[in-house]
Design a protein that fits this description.
alpha+beta; about 200 residues; about 30% strand; five-stranded antiparallel β-sheet; about 40% helix; four-stranded antiparallel β-sheet; 9 strands
């Protein structure tokens, strides 16, 4: 099988997408190219050069849509290009979907219509998490296994966030202690000068 040129395929897909999404009520803004390598490492760029060496990729197309009620609002569409070069809208295969919500800039990984995980924009910071979870659950056989792994993934993420908060708190506490000690030394020096 010939090696797929993901740069060419993604550029073509983006151009086709632009053609269908540039109207009076829809403005195409840009595409985020998400390269996925053989080891499932994820890299993002707003230019397709990042896809060199990719074995699959995601295209996240950013649009603005006109609404009488809300004026212009943002909406992202996701396309997945698999290892065979098939371009799929939102569908990752095996009943897995990845999609976005305009109302809150939320990206969701779902299985059989049920949400497994969601995150907020910017996608560059969070698409790796969604892809990692997808890689962990895509080969599982039962819905219960998939849900269990997704719940463990979310709990682990919560634990990591709490650890980061604790580290930030400890660092802030350390800085405040250093500042307090500095003021104490200054007061001691002033006290000595007054006593002389």
């Amino acid at each position: 099988m010939d090696k797929i040129d993901f740069i060419e395929l993604a550029t073509y897909s983006t151009e086709k997408y632009k053609e269908t999404h540039n109207r009076n009520d829809v403005r195409y803004i840009h595409t985020l190219y998400v390269a996925i390598d053989e080891d499932n490492n994820v890299k993002c760029s707003k230019t397709p050069h990042i896809l060199k060496g990719a074995v699959q990729c995601l295209l996240i197309h950013h649009n603005q849509i006109w609404s009488e009620k809300a004026d212009w609002y943002s909406l992202d569409d996701v396309e997945y290009i698999d290892k065979e070069g098939c371009v799929l809208e939102r569908n990752l295969g095996g009943k897995f979907d990845i999609q976005t919500s305009a109302s809150a800039s939320v990206m969701t990984l779902s299985y059989n219509g049920q949400e497994l995980y969601s995150c907020y924009a910017p996608w560059e910071d969070n698409i790796g998490k969604i892809w990692n979870l997808y890689c962990e659950v895509k080969d599982l056989k039962s819905t219960n296994e998939i849900k269990l792994v997704a719940n463990l993934f979310k709990k682990n993420e919560t634990i990591l966030e709490l650890k980061k908060e604790i580290e930030n708190f400890k660092f802030t506490e350390y800085l405040l202690e250093q500042e307090r000690n500095q003021y104490k030394r200054m007061l001691d020096e002033i006290k000595e000068m007054v006593e002389k």
